[in-house]
Specification:
alpha/beta, 40% helix, 366 residues, 14 helices
């Protein structure tokens, strides 16, 4: 007798696989891709080499850059570094695939060439993977820094598997340079999706989550740089968000709900709320309450089926926090002085102006 079609796993109906322990060759393979902006490359490389866990290999992919000699010279710094030169730009996603193909470890850790790792990063993420055979993807919180390395604050990314899945309904819940994942998981989903270089990491998490559990460790082991010359910095934020709308539409439908953000303004309000940012459109608060309430009810129904013992507390805490913030009302916008101060810190204009003053030799009168 036929039992009907087998339901395919999804983000909200996952079938986590059991992963073998990482026991071959190096413990972890760090993969970095680099293109033409190499101002922070040496800092990123030094951050990896300074890791407290030393059993790793470090693969740097030169994605058809104009700086072949500088990248080719990196292996002289440390025997664990290998480089791969691509003669032309194949895109960040495919360059990542090429690096992963060279990896000898069952665990892949990713680092962007303008970010910087804290010394305990690899030790923490590999320990998390070792401790949970169903965990396929792990990241950490992030220190936010500007071009000059000044710290702007900490972004506390969602920690639990449950919170990560609900956050994906709105935005990317991981910092790329904080993550490590199982190589077999990448192979199972056919590699990093190419063609969308700006959002390839977001799409990668979406493809992984039906097959594994995920976590963010609650401490900042990644320094994420606001780089105006990087891929993210040179892209229009509105365009970037529109490129991942298909992911969000599919996930809301997977929860059994209509996509609620055809109106861009309510989508941005929902995103600001989940990130605990000030509310741009407080007049949309009543609509936001209805959307969040529907999400939490549907999330509990769908996700309860695969929560493990001990995970229910994390679900209750996450839901209670969202409901408390809804009850407290819209988060007010900062005043103009606070916004100006943040802009100055983000762009490092004070340092930039000081450098210009020094360059032109301007001297204050006595």
């Amino acid at each position: 007798m036929s039992t009907g079609p087998v339901k395919q796993p999804g983000v909200f109906s996952p079938q986590p696989q059991i992963f073998a322990a990482a026991a071959t060759n190096p413990k972890v393979s760090v993969v970095m891709t680099s293109w033409n902006d190499i101002r922070f490359l040496r800092e990123a490389v030094d951050g990896v080499l300074a890791q407290t866990m030393t059993d790793f290999e470090f693969i740097v992919v030169d994605n058809g850059s104009h700086h072949a000699a500088a990248i080719a010279a990196l292996p002289a710094l440390d025997r664990r570094i290998r480089t791969l030169r691509l003669e032309h730009d194949v895109g960040a996603a495919e360059a990542g695939n090429r690096g992963i193909a060279l990896a000898r470890s069952p665990v892949i850790a990713r680092m962007d060439n303008d970010d910087r790792a804290e010394p305990g990063w690899l030790a923490a993420v590999t320990a998390a993977l070792d401790a949970d055979s169903e965990l396929g993807l792990v990241g950490t919180w992030a220190n936010l820094i500007n071009e000059h390395g000044d710290r702007l604050g900490v972004d506390a990314t969602p920690e639990s598997d449950y919170a990560i899945r609900l956050t994906l309904l709105s935005h990317n819940p991981f910092y790329h340079s904080s993550t490590a994942y199982r190589r077999s998981l990448v192979e199972r989903i056919g590699g990093i999706e190419t063609g969308e270089n700006l959002t390839h990491d977001h799409r990668l998490w979406r493809a992984m989550l039906p097959h594994c559990r995920a976590r963010n460790l609650p401490f900042a082991l990644c320094n994420y740089r606001y780089n105006p010359s990087g891929i993210t910095g040179t892209s229009d934020p509105l365009t970037k968000r529109s490129r991942t709308q298909d992911i969000r539409i599919g996930l809301w439908r997977e929860l059994g709900l209509d996509y609620p953000f055809e109106d861009r303004a309510i989508g941005d309000t929902f995103d600001d709320f989940l990130r605990n940012r000030p509310t741009q459109r407080p007049e949309l608060w009543s609509r936001l309450i209805a959307i969040v309430d529907a999400m939490l009810i549907a999330g509990e129904v769908h996700i309860a089926s695969f929560l493990r013992p001990g995970e229910e507390a994390a679900r209750v805490t996450f839901d209670a926090d969202l409901r408390a913030r809804l009850a407290s009302g819209p988060k007010p916008q900062p005043n103009w002085f606070s916004r100006l101060r943040l802009a100055l810190r983000l762009r490092g204009l004070r340092r930039t102006l000081a450098a210009v003053v020094r360059r032109i030799g301007w001297i204050e009168p006595a």
